[in-house]
User: What shape does this take?
Amino acid sequence: MTSPRSNFLKAVVERGYLHQCTDMDALDDSMGKGTISAYIGFDATADSLHAGSLVPIMLLRLLQKSGHKPIVLMGGGTTRVGDPSGKDESRQLLTEEKIEENLAGIKRVFSKFLTFGDGPTDAVMVNNADWLMGLNYIDFLRDYGRHFSVNRMLGFESVKMRLEREQPLSFLEFNYMILQAYDFMELSRRNGCVLQMGGSDQWGNIVNGIDLTRRVDEKQLFGLTVPLLTTASGAKMGKTAGGAVWLNEDKLPSYDYWQYWRNTEDADVGKFLRLFTELPIEEIERLEKLEGAEINEAKKVLAHEATKLCHGEEAALRAAETAQKTFEQGAFGGDLPSIEIDRGELEGGIGLLDALTRAGLTATNGEARRFVQQSAVKVNDEKVDDPRAQLNTAMLNAEGIIKLSVGKKKHALVKLT
RNA sequence: GGUGGGAUGCCCGAGUGGCUAAAGGGGGCGGACUGUAAAUCCGCUGGCUAUGCCUACGUUGGUUCGAAUCCAACUCCCACCA
Assistant: This one.
């Protein structure tokens, strides 16, 4: 493969987005000739996307910046079936109302990363429920079912894995790849889409769509996959203490989002800067060369750039300021989570355990008790190891705030109403 | 439809009448060490108005002083046979 000439593919290779591509040279040619449309499909299994979906999202953004048209395919129809790829067990089927609700939440995420509209390179969002729900079973089987070889489908990784491990695979799920293949063909017909991208676990599904369209419409389509990311120490991307790293502000405050990137493992910094920021490569090469404690500077840049894309520059600066005050000056910043308490209530004294739980630092009083006993709890940066301790007005600082901490990283503020 | 096997805490998985809030592992969290990193070591890991109480071993009943453990019915899953 010669090195690509189109802006998009050049960047894809350079920044580490490429895992596999069906026909790099031919795709490069088409992209050089003019604007193309490409799509990525997203499940509607939750009401927000999380950091695990960020690579494909960034890929669509890069596509748009390179002068092409991104199509976001919402799996309103296929989510009703459930993708078996990469999963041991069938997924719980979601109700229709829940799926609709999830679609609405996910739409808000994309508006941050892509420009939607009617222009030639404006992004569009489509929902495969629009064409899948109306399919007639017998017609579908006769028109398209005959192009799928079961023999071949059994060889696909997603299916093979289930069969080898003797995990049940229902006929419903077995049909997922057929529906996704049909999606690709449908999008090529409706929107002139010629490229489907996705995670490396989608390779089989993508290739199926290309094959189907070649057989039925005699059209050449392309597929390109991105690597499925794990951190250098093997953990799945996008998981953290409190659960998933959501991209919607209402599910994960921008301060916590910033912290997630700030805590990136050393070995991942360069990779993440390439994938999740839009800094020039030369700048990234400079940053990833930093060693020892200096690499923290690179992590701050990563946190800033990533947060800026998702939540805006202002939120990123706010998070950085709070982090600086909290971690580097031993004070606290206004972006920390906070709870408000009535003065009268505080005068009467509030149990420490109760306060920790109300502030969201602990899930239950029992957990709070354990933390206190493990001397992990601080009030105004003073260690407290008596579970019966009370908060009172004497603890308020000059600004009328009490700072609570659990461990080194979790902090919250108690303010008066 | 028949026969056999299974369902345990976030996950995997021991446990076959009291010593079981349930071994062990994973994951997660806290502490030490550091650089808000990794690795390593130590500890914690059902809830509560807390020397006690409540909830929990698929569901519902039963036997027993006492059940995750025994019995019955039911639900779901798996395997083999038809």
Remarks:
- Chain A has a mean pLDDT of 88.
- The CA atoms of residues 401 and 415 of chain A lie 5 Å apart.
- The two ends of chain A are 65 Å apart (CA to CA).
